[in-house]
# Entry
Amino acid sequence: MNTKTNQSINIGVDTGKFQLDIYVRPLEIYFTVSNDDKGIKEALNEIKKHKPERIIIEATGRLEMPFIMACAKAGLPFVIANPVHVKRFAGAIGQRAKTDKLDAKLIAHYGEAIKPSLSQLKPENMQLMSDLVARRNQLLVMQTMEKNRLQILPKELAMTIKPILTAFKNQILRIENKILKLIESCPEYQAKNHLLQSMKGIGKIAAASIISNLPELGYMTNKQASALVGVAPINRESGRFKGMRKIQGGRHQIRTVLYMAMMSAIQSNPVFKGQYQKLVAAGKPKKVALIACVRKMIVILNSMLRDGVIWEAPKV
# Structure
């Protein structure tokens, strides 16, 4: 009789673009499934048989979100682990070899030894928060258009615009309250929100946009973070031709929000104000200088979330 079945079950999941590698500890069961709806359904059917204490999966990007959402829907206990913590654990136990199977086994071992708290993340709320931030941006654009019309149209028409502006204002306020309630509903959102807003320039909307539209932040390299937002300059060279490097791709919604946040940061945050002034003084166009500051902001925020530390401006 295998006495291991009486022990707590920890399941490690290593996420790939096309495949999920799954290890059940301490039963030493290993299997793989495709990272799609069919494979995830197959994986959950097998996982449910073992009644796990926790299912641990690294937060390496959006690739794990379908699996996490399926676990949440099925009521299974899951942990979204920080890859840095798992890597440090590997160093502590002296594991250097890397294969998909070994990674899944390591993640399961990490869960058993460290016993990380279960994630209370509600993946569907991330999409709702993203939609709310997008809708708020739409309302702001329409509000600005109406304000501009108020300036140029005859005063006799002002009364046809003011009620609309009041309606926009009320709807924007309602959306902001809904966003705040979503953040307050989840300890993980609260923790991220606290860290993000500790940086001058990052307000509640920018923080909510990062939480919902850039959940990978804190779990990747600085270069990956910059590329994901779309603020990493891309070389344009061919033979003797050397064009100006330009940004491209990335997630435009979060980039727009951070661009606006930087407009505030260069007024209130001495670090970004100093960098912006230095770049402009060196002859950089103002927009280029702003994008460079946004890139620096992303790098710093990525490090803050990775290490769980609040913003501290350098002492002058």
Remarks:
- The mean pLDDT is 85.
- DSSP finds twelve helices and seven strands in the chain.
